[in-house]
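Q: For a teaching session next week I want to show students how multiple molecules come together into a single three-dimensional assembly. I've collected the sequence lines for a complex. Could you give me the predicted C-alpha cells for the whole thing so I can convert them for display?
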Amino acid sequence: MPKVEIIGLTKKFKSAKDEEILALDNLNLNIPSKKYSTLLGPSGCGKTTLLRIITGLISPTKGQVLFNKEDVSLRPPQERDIGFVFQHFSIFPHMDVWHNTAYGPLVRGWEKEDIAKAVKINLKLVGLDDRAKALPHELSGGMRQRLGLARALATHAKLLLLDEPLSALDAKIGAYLRYELRKIVKNNRLTAIHVTHNQEEAMMISDNIILMRKGRIVQTGSPVELYNYPKTIFAANFIGKCNFFTARKLSDNLIDIGGRKLAVKKNIKYDEMVIGIRPEKIHLKSHPGQALFTGKIDLINFLGHLYEYRINVNGNIIKAYKRIKDDKLPEKYREGDKVNFSISGDDIFIFPKPKDIKKELSLD
Ligand code: ADP
Ligand code: MG
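A: Of course. Below is the structure for the complete assembly, covering every listed component.
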C-alpha cells in the first residue's frame, strides 16, 4: 500500500519570455497511505505540477519522490503502479465503455480472462456495468467521469491521482460524485491524491488537506484542523469564511479592537495583530465580557438553514450567520437596520500583523 513521500522537491519552468518560474519551491511532504488527501490551493500555486511529478509525467528540477521509502524519481509513469483521472475525461471517444476500461490491462498484456474480470469488477464499482457497450458520447458528463475512474482503477492500482476530476461537471453532479469517489476510495482501501482549487470540495472529500500557495505548502491537516486552527491569515481566509480585524495588545490577556477591549485566555505574543473570527461566531446581541460592535445590515441572504448578514462597520463588511430556528418566524432584522454584535475572546484566531495585509488576504 503506497505511502508517498516528497523530499526537497523543486520545479522550475521557463516562461515564453525565457523568465524562470518557480512552480514548486523545496517541498517536503508525507502523504499517508489509505487516506484521501487533497492538494488544495488557488490556481497557479503548483498543484498540477506536483501531481504530474508524482505520476512521473514530468521530472523535478531537484528532489525526490518516494513510494514506500523507495525512490521512484527516475521511473516512468507506467512503472509506478498508479491510476490517474483528469479534469477532461481521459477516455477514448471511439471506444465503448468496455474497451475503454480494458485499455490499461490490454496494453500491459494481461490474459483475456483477467482483463474481462477486471473490467467487470470496475464497471460494477462505478455503476456502469449495464452500459458496457455504450460509446462515451452516449453517456452523461458524470458517467464519463465515472468511466475515467473505472479505467484508472482497472489495472488494480492502489494509488489514485486525480486532477480536478469534478471541476468540469455540473455543480450538483460534481457534489454527488464527491461522495461516490470518497466511498470507492475508502471501501477499496486506496490512497487518493486529488487536486482541487475548490475548498468546499476539499473539506467534504478529504481525510487530509495539503494547502498550497505560490509553490509552497502552507499547512496540512484534517479539514477540522484547518478550519479550527488555521496557522496563517491566508489559511483562515481560503478555508471557510472569516472576518478580520486589526488589534493591539493592551496586556498579556487583553487586546484592543478599534477602541473596544476584549479579554483573551491565551497569552498575547504580538503588539500588533490581525484577529480572525468565523461568521458563525459573531453573536447578534451583546454578551457580558465580549467586545461589542455596531453596524448597519447591508444585505441579508437566506440560505435555508441560516441567514447570512453582511454588516457594514465603518466601511468594512463583516459576515455573520444566524441559525434559523424551528419556529420559522419571520426574520426580525431588515436590510438597513442598525445592529449590535459581539465577539468572544475564546473564538478568535490571532495572527501577527503582516507587513502587507492585502497580500495576505488575496486569494492567489
Ligand atoms: P495549478 O495546478 O495549481 O493551477 P500549475 O502546477 O499548473 O498550477 O502551475 C504552477 C505554475 O507553473 C504556474 O505559474 C504555471 O503557469 C507554471 N507552469 C506550469 N506548467 C508549465 C509549463 N509547462 N511551462 C511553463 N510554465 C508552467
Ligand atoms: Mg491545475
